[in-house]
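for ur thesis appendix - DNA-binding HxlR family transcriptional regulator. copy paste whatever u need, i formatted it the way the template wanted (i think)
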Amino acid sequence: MQLDKIVNFHKTVGDKTRIRIISLLRSGPLHGQAIAGKLGLKAPTISHHLKKLKDIDVVYQRRDKNTIYYYLNESKLERLTHAIIEVGGNAMNEQYAVSQEEKAKIIQNFTDQTGRFKRLPAQRKKKLILLEHILRGLEHGKSYEEKEINEYIQTYYEDYATVRREFVMAHFMYRDNGIYELNPVEMWPV
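the 3d part is after this line
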């Protein structure tokens, strides 16, 4: 499951009203007015929260004559809830599983005597191994400004923008407003 979907799910259900709606719908389908009445909120507020839950496919609706009933998509809710446990698990890591000897050989083939990269490989598996190699010199839990990351990458490879982008796309690092942090090793694809 994509990391973006997991994050979006947790952002959406990270609201007290939405959690209460999910709790109500676990007992069975309800129409918007009934949900509003049970929660003591106005119908437009409930409609807003139901739309957010529908957007992530946790809630779906069915019409019965003039009334729209909302149902909890329990299987989807369960999958999304458990997806965070699987992040960094075998499903991601098996795809790029490589022995330490093979990693060392790949690093040796793509670096010169000084440890700088000759080029980035086109093959994803090899590229991830080289990216991981670079990251081993950074500290977990430390925040880095973009300038610091650029300078660090340049000690290995000239095209720092490409490498920096690859760090984020491969989920080695997290970026927010020009600040970079290493993701937990369990999220790394190698």
